[in-house]
Design a protein that fits this description.
With 83 residues, this protein is mostly helical. It has a domain at 35-62. The protein contains two helices and no strands. The chain has helices at residues 11-24, 32-63. Helix 1 (11-24) packs antiparallel against helix 2 (32-63). The termini are far apart. The model has no long low-confidence stretch (mean pLDDT 79).
Amino acid sequence: MLPDTLYFMSAESTLIFAGTLVVLTPFLGLPSEWYGYIFLVLGMLVTGIGIMLRTRRTVLSEHRSPVSEPEQSPEKEETSNIA
């Protein structure tokens, strides 16, 4: 069982964190062979989160009830006196 104090990051926060890791990875001083694997994993993470967010947005937009437009009142005809 997970402790009550354990919090999970939202998808948006995870995406920001992964982007930050992509920016900082070249400055970590790791062997150059590792960078290919690190960028592969981070790329898959960013792609997966992007797909998840797009799917979530599509599902939410389909479940929303259509907004009814307010009734239009008859427009008053304005007469102008052009002399």
